Every structure is written in C-alpha cells, then in structure tokens.
Amino acid sequence: MPISRALLEQVKKLIPPLDGSLHKGQSGQCIPTINLPTGTIKINGRRLGRVGVLGGALDYTGAPFFASMSALRVGADLSHVICSPTAAGAIKSYAPDLIVHPILDPDTPPEKVKPDLESLLSRLHAIIVGPGLGREDYMQTYAKLAISIAKERGMFVVIDADALFLVGKDTSIIKGYRRAVLTPNVVEFKRLSEQVGVNPNTPVQHRASEVSRKLGGITVLQKGPTDIISTDSTGEAADLTVSHLEGADAQFEQAKETVEVDVPGGLKRCGGQGDVLSGAVGTFMAWGKCYEDGAFGDRKVPASRIPLLASIGGSILTRTVSRMAFLERGRSVITEDMIPKLGQAFEEVYGDNHKEGKLDLSYCIMPPQWEVLSSQKRKALQDSIPQDWIIPYIPIKDQPNVLDVPEKSGLLTPRELQITNTEDVEVILGKLRTAEWTSEETTRAFYKRAIVAHQLTNCLTEIFVERALERARHLDEILAKTGKVVGPLHGLPVSLKDQFTMKGLETVMGYVAGIGEFAEKDSVIVEILYQCGAVPFVRTNVPQTLMWGETYNHVYGRTLNPYNRSLTPGGSSGGEGALLAMKGSPLGIGTDIGGSLRIPSVFCGLYTLRPSYARLPYYGSKNTMMGQESITSVLGPMTNSLSGIQAFMKAVLDTRPWDMDPMVVRKPWDEEEWNLCEHGGVGAQLCFAVMWDNGVVRPHPPLIRAMKIVKAALEKAGHKVIDWECHRHLEIYKNAESIFAADGNHDYKAECAKSGEPLIKSMVPSHDEEVAAGYEYEPPMSMVKTFLGDPPEHVSAYELFKLHEEKRELRKSHLDHWQKTVSRTGTGRPVDAIISPAVAYTAVPHGLNTDSFYTTLCNAMDYTTSAFPVTFVDPTLDVPHEPHEFYNHEDKAIYELYESHLFDGCPVGLQLIGMTLEEEAILRMTYIVDEALQQWKAKEQ
C-alpha cells in the first residue's frame, strides 16, 4: 500500500519534541526520572537519540561519515563512528561533530575488543552496521560481533552495504531479529533474494515481503525508483495485518505489511545517498527506542512497528532532500550537497512547528484502494519490460507522430526491422514454414517493436516475454525434428485484445475489479490459436466498459494514436490499433459490438473484418453485458494486410469451432462464397453503392474525398457504382442504442462497484495528462444521450422484448430495401456491397469521438463488414465544406470540429458492407476494391 495519513501520523509519534526538557544541551537541563505505569525510568541526560555507525576502513571513509553526519543533521543527539585506526584520522578531519572510536584493529583479536564494543553500544540507542565496512575478514568479523551484542541488548539495528553481504552468507546472524532493518539497493537486493531462496517467479512488488518472511519478519527497505518497505513474519500462516493502535506492551507473533514510498526524489542518484538513508533511518530508530522507553510520547505505537515506521520516515526524508539538492545543483549534485539540507527537508516533510511535531501531509493522502490497485498493476506492467528494451522518453509536443521511432531507436537489428516491416502476413508465414525465419527470432523481433510501441502509445496491458519465447522455441523444435508445421499459423506472433483469457494471466478488460482475477483456462479462440501454431505474445488496452470509441481506463490509462499522439486511436480495440499501426504485431484480434474493430482500423490505417454474429468462437472470453444477446459482440482480425485476415479466417474455421463453442454456426470456410458465386463469379462486374452520408452526421471532407477515390478506382476497373439511399437510419440507431442501455447502465455500475472505481462518463483528458496540454475542445452531447437520456432508463423485460421485436422488423425492412436495389444495379442482382465511412471523421482529439452510427448500423443489421485504408488527410485537398443544413446538434458540432491542419497526415479509411454471414465474399470484394485502389493510385501518380 502507499503511505496513508494514519501511517504518517505514527511516524510523527517517533519524533521527539524540542521543548528543552529531555536533554542537557548547553543549559544543562535534565529530567532525571519519568513516571510510567510500569514503574519509574531514569533518564540519563541526552535522550534525543544516540546513533552509532560501525564501518570505515582504509579505503572507505566517506560512507561512515555520510551516514553519521546525516544522523546528526536529521536530529540525533550524538553520532558515533566505530571504525578501524586507519580510517579514524580521515573521518575526524571531515567533521569535529562526530565522535570517532578507532577500535576495530585488524591486529587485535576480536575477543579483546569486545568489552570496548559492548561499552560503546551500551551508550547508544541504535547502531548502523555496514557503511564503509568493506569485505575484509576482520571488518566482517567485527560487524558480526556488533550485531550479536546489539541483539543481546535489544538494540535497533540498520544493516546496510557490505553488512548485507555478511548476513546474506549467514542468515542466522540476523534471522528472526525484528528490531533490524535491511536497506539493500537493487544489486544487493537481487543477491539477497537469491541467497534466502526467493522464487524468481515471485512478482516484483512482492519480493521484499518474501525476503522479510524468509528472514523471520525483519523489515526490508528495498531501495529503488519507488522504495518498497516490507515486514512479514507470517511464515506459512495466513496473512495478518498489524493493529495500528495497540499499546506498546502488545507483541505480535505474526504481522505482514508493505508500504510503497514514491515521494519525488532527485533525477540523479548520488553515490552516498544510501548512506544518507541509513543515517536517517538509524536516527528514527534511535528516537523509536527513546519513545519505547517512555522518554516522550504516548507509547501507543507497538515496538514491533518501530523499524517499519523508521524506514518510512527515513525514506521520505531522504527522497525529499535528494529532490531539493537536485533542484539546486542539477546534474552536478553530490551527497555533500544533500546533507546540509536535511534540516530544511525535515521541515518540509514534517512541518516547522517542532514543539508540536506538525506533519505536512498535503501531498501524501492515502488514495482509495482502487487507485492503489491500479497503480500497482501499472507498475507491474512497467517492471515486465526488459531493461534493454527501454527507449528515452519522447514528449508528445516534440514528436506527435512516432511511426519512425522503432527504426531510429537502435533497439532492433537490421534483420528484426526486416521481419517487422514485412506487412504481408502470408509472406511471414511462408518464411516461418520454411524456417528461413525462426519463430523465436520472429517473436522476439515483434516483441521488441511492441515494447517500443507501448512506450510511445501505451497500447499494452500484459507483457509475458519469456512465456511467448518459450512457446516459439517449442514450435521451432517441432519443425526441426519433424519437418512439419504445427498448423497454418505456425510460429506467427498474435496480439490479443484484453478480453481473451489466457491461463495464468489476469484479464482486466478495463476494470479495476479484473485485477487479481487469473484465468484458470484459455478462451476458445486462444485454444484455437495454439492448435493453429500461433504464438500469443501480448494483450492490448481497452476502455472501461468497452462501449467507447476511444481507449482509456483507470487501470492502464490512455492509449494514443501513433500518427498523432494528441489524437485517439479509436476503440474499443484501440490498443490493437495503435500496436498494429506501429508494426508491433503482424496480426491482432479484437472485438466489435458497435464498431470496435472498424473505428481503430480506420483511425490507424489498418484492415479488419467484422464477421456476423456467431461465425467465430467467443466462448470463454470476458465481455461487458454478457447476457445481452440481441446485438452481440463478435471477434475479428486486424492487420496491415488483407492476407492476414484471410489466413486467420481460414485457419480458425478449419478447426471446426462449432465443436468448441455452442454458439458458433456450423459453416466451414466457403470456397463458393470466396469465388463470389452469388455475385456473378470472380471477374464479373460488381455493383457497389456509396453511402455519402447516413442522414445522421455528414462526413468530413477527407471521407468524402476517399469515397470519390474509391468510386473512381472501381469504375476504372470496370465495376459499377451507384448512390445508396438510406433507409430508416434514425429508427435503427435509436433501437440499437436502446437495447445497449436497456439495463440503465447497471452492468457497468455493478462492475465498477466491485472495486469502488468511478464509472467513466467522459473520455476528455484530465488536467494531469500530457495530452491535455493546449486542449480546448468541448465534446458535444452525443445523439445517444439525446435518444435515451442521461442516465438512461432501466427498462422492463417486456419493454426489452418489444425492442427485440422492433429490431427484427427493422432488419426485415432493411433487407427488403437492399433487395429492391436490383432495379438500379444493371447486373441483375441487388447491390453487391455498400461503401461508406466507418466514422464521419478521421482520428480526433481525445474525448471527441462521439459518432458511431456508421458502424452500429452494421451491428444492428448483422451485416458482415470490412474496413480498409484509402488515403491520408491532405490540407491542400481536404478544404472545409460550406455549412450544410444540419441534421441535428451532433452533426453541427462535428462540422465545426473540422480543421484540416489538425488532422494532417491522418489515415482515411472506409468500410465495405455486405449481407449477413458473407465473410468470404466481403473479404474477396475487399481484395477487389483494394487492388482497384492500388492500380488507380499508381496511374494517378
């Protein structure tokens, strides 16, 4: 958990008041005794905390100085350095304030030094062992002796630096001594984890707790970008939380607590900063000993929590002073710049009224649990990125278009660039089948590029590199041994929208409640991918509820469009859209209930296919509105090539998915349909109809130009193109949205209530998001809210039945309307397919994607639909249109949104609409349209 107000209030209790009553000081004031319920305790002079540092050999004099001087600057009354004679002179010369004891003589037997060491430690409240210790045998022996004496006396102990090496070799030195704190850095923590036997598969955020558990409950302060402080004395027992307000006499046999300290620090970590931390923690522990003895305070904090609280107090203080010194010195900052500012940092963190120990908690209020879980999940995702695949941060304002970054990053080899720049999936599959490219190198290449894409667009939700590479190696071994591929997608990396469950992984699906829910089995589509020889390798981001044409949620945040990161990639398969646009995957699988495949595809320049209901297996996948079966979600492929769609569809259908999902229709790959038998056959003249607008929202100029281009290309290729006459569109739109909202949004609210996260009601960026810089747009009220109200009404079962009845009638009416076009086509057939926008505009600024009816029409009528790229926005060609007679307020707002320079360079795509269950035919006709486009463009250029 992060730092809470209650937790910091307990840290505050360890800070002694400066009222002159508890120390001699210059005035010689002293309180000789203090009356406690347990008896009278004598106060021996200075009681503000006496700290000792054991360390300092010939070559290591700076570290003990930094630690002991930091203790003084934090507020320790006295600071002693116990060192070797060879180090004493140098340390004394650094500061006369330190009391130096050169008793760790390499030539003196430790048993002769022991009385002096015992005498010294009897005058201290806490001992810091390790700064400047080194690994020479005699210093390690003295450290072991000092720890032994401290344990006998019940002292608080900080174990740092090379003392960690000592206790790692022999954990019995410290195991079970819960008055100790270990302060390892990244390297030391890795070594210590291995030495105590922590499972390497333990999640990063839980490893400190596991080290503590294996050492019997010692507090572990794992230093890093975020300091993780853990204590776990539960052993194999169930988790217990320490009571926060029990008396000091209460001792806890079992306790488990983890705190993350992410208070901002400096951007440069100095050598010696760890010594400052150990000095600060040691001081808090010394104060804690005085508190425990009753020298001040209420003794309501149990002694068992003092190491944890001291670690928190020292960590916050050290990070704060690091920030202050860095702001003043920049990259030239050194540890000596930090130490003089410790007093100022102390005031900033804990307030300036020392008598009351006032603590400034304004920046440190405990967030709600759903925020904590989201933060932990984001951190786990970041931690799963291999360190050598991390690229420098690139501000959005400096480079909105990041498509070229993978090639310029230097992370991918020339061969990896060759692999990932190959857009044609059939070419990739051919090279995998012949072992010209191995599955392992292909998966690694796309994984690298996917990780680069994620760092630029925030497109991923699950990264499992080794799992995917292990699968790829297994496929390579089979091919090498047998000479045969596992299936038609052998060795192909495939990305998955964060709905498709994979055994052993969480499927968050944009909801905080999904965190911690690990799948026990694969969804059917994932099983089929394995059968086909594919390599599922990443999962991609979605919006909360899935019912948005953008991609943002509380867990992973916002996904950006790589063509212009100030614009949305669409949704709900927006993570797939951004990833594929960056060529971070050769083939992705998304879903579509109202346009969720097609919107990101046209916004990101991709191909996709929205199949009809139940053509492909959805069983076992997570979804929103699971029981809503009137307008159902479907899954489909997204790629940079039509061959990818064909390969996917044929591979999946050849596995007989109806044997695995009871909802799938019993229809294998249909060669007759692929050969357009119901459309005159391959080579026949086709008749397409263009839907120039849908009577709800008129498209922006680039979409009109794209439709004109496609019309010209098809006519040039010998096909016929007529205008589509819209039919009952507003009725269809209202009916579909009424079905979606029939539960009054209860499904979304119930899912949010599981975690306490709020329901997202707008995709507009918050002020703390980078994309909010310069944001000046006001999203219009969508037509959906006009239809349904906000919030929508929860209708009765009978009212829902009537909506279903109305939908059937509308489908029949629209089918009849389509069939009647036979009188206008000249082919003797009705229109073969409709060409229309998928959205009325190209990618828009985040929060402004409100129109969805161009796509929802196909979902409501269950028309098989593809999407394909046509061109890019060109401000010289796509000039604003004159105002037209607006259909409604949304149409007017979308018209006013258009500024050609805002969308400059964005992909412009369209959709091709066929009749129900015409997947093979629509795919073949999309090939025909695409080929006509390429030929037309070649001649035009």
Looking at this protein, list some descriptive labels.
Amidase signature (AS) enzymes; 3 domains; 941 residues; elongated; alpha/beta; 39% helix; UDP-N-acetylmuramoyl-L-alanine:D-glutamate ligase
Describe the structure.
With 941 residues, the chain is an alpha/beta fold. It folds into 3 domains: 5-350, Ribokinase (UDP-N-acetylmuramoyl-L-alanine:D-glutamate ligase); 367-393 and 410-623 and 633-669, Amidase signature (AS) enzymes (Alpha-Beta Complex); 670-941, Amidase signature (AS) domain (Amidase signature (AS) enzymes), CATH 3.90.1300. Helix content is 39%, strand content 12%. The chain has 32 helices and 24 strands. The strands form 4 sheets. The chain has an 11-stranded mixed beta sheet with strand order 12-14-13-17-19-18-23-24-22-20-21, with helices on both faces. Helix 6 (162-169) runs parallel beside helix 7 and helix 25 (729-740) packs across helix 30. It comes from Gymnopilus dilepis. One of its GO terms (cellular component) is cytoplasm. Residues 7-349 form the YjeF C-terminal domain. Its EC number is 4.2.1.93.
Structural class: alpha/beta
* Number of contiguous helices: 32
Please, how many domains? Answer: 3
How does the major sheet shape up?
A: 11 strands, mixed
- What is Rg? 34 Å
Adjacency order of strands in the biggest sheet: 12-14-13-17-19-18-23-24-22-20-21
Query: Helical residue percent?
Result: 25-40%
Shape: elongated
Q: Strand fraction band?
A: 5-15%
The residue ranges in which pLDDT falls below 50 over 5 or more consecutive positions are 23-46, 236-254, 353-361
CATH superfamily of the largest domain: Ribokinase
Q: From the coordinates shown, what is the CATH architecture of the largest domain?
A: 3-Layer(aba) Sandwich
| Arithmetic mean of pLDDT | 92
CATH topology of the largest domain: UDP-N-acetylmuramoyl-L-alanine:D-glutamate ligase
Number of strands: 24
**CATH C-level label of the largest domain:** Alpha Beta
Cα(first) to Cα(last) distance is 60 Å
